[in-house]
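Email to the structure team, subject: rRNA methyltransferase model.

Hi all, the expression group asked for a predicted structure before they design truncation constructs. Nothing fancy, just the tokens so they can compare against earlier work. One-line instruction: predict rRNA methyltransferase, return tokens.
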Amino acid sequence: MHANASHELTTWGVGPWQGEWPEGAGSAEQPNPDSIYDPELLTNGDTRNVLDKYRYWKMQAIVADLDSRRHNFHVAIENWQHDLNIGSIVRTANAFLAAEVHIIGNKRWNRRGAMVTDRYQHVRHHSTVEEFIEWSKTAADDGGKLPIIAIDNVPGCKKIEQYALPENCVLLFGQEGPGLSDPAIEAADVVLEISQFGSTRSINASAAAAITMHQWVMQHVDFSN
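Reply from the structure team: attached below.
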């Protein structure tokens, strides 16, 4: 927590900044418009659910900092039935610093589960699976195809625990219940399943997305630094 932050904590944040404003922020009488700090938050407190590092920062400053170090995987979700899991998947994508989230199908999606993390996470819409496939053909860093890694438990799929996920890829998830559509499965470079050991046939879509993103992180993030 910042040394000059108020000790009057709210549920998710801190109260008004105490004493002189942080370096570069200017003052209450003359805020610096080029500062990363938000004058309104410094004056009234910051109740957002953000890391302490980002307390009192402007939203665009937080996004810019995240953009400077985002991971190389994308997340895609089919949205044909207004799936309530989409918001939770966006929130998890933000937590694991995904490059971008892609909503395939209906443009409107339930944002409640995102807990406003969609303000910090890039989200792109594709009307159809075909449109999404066209995007993937030139979406890699070198302008080539970005591999589509589908997650579903269909015949012929491979186990995610035994698969080396590409560093640059898009992780594709279906809806709760029906799973991925046939066109989405056909478009995938590979279909992976998450090993399960209980009686249920499938796990929650948002849980599957979280497991998959963490699997990518465990394979590609250096934790020694």
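The chain has a mean pLDDT of 93. Residues 1-68 form one domain. Ping us if the truncation boundaries need rechecking.
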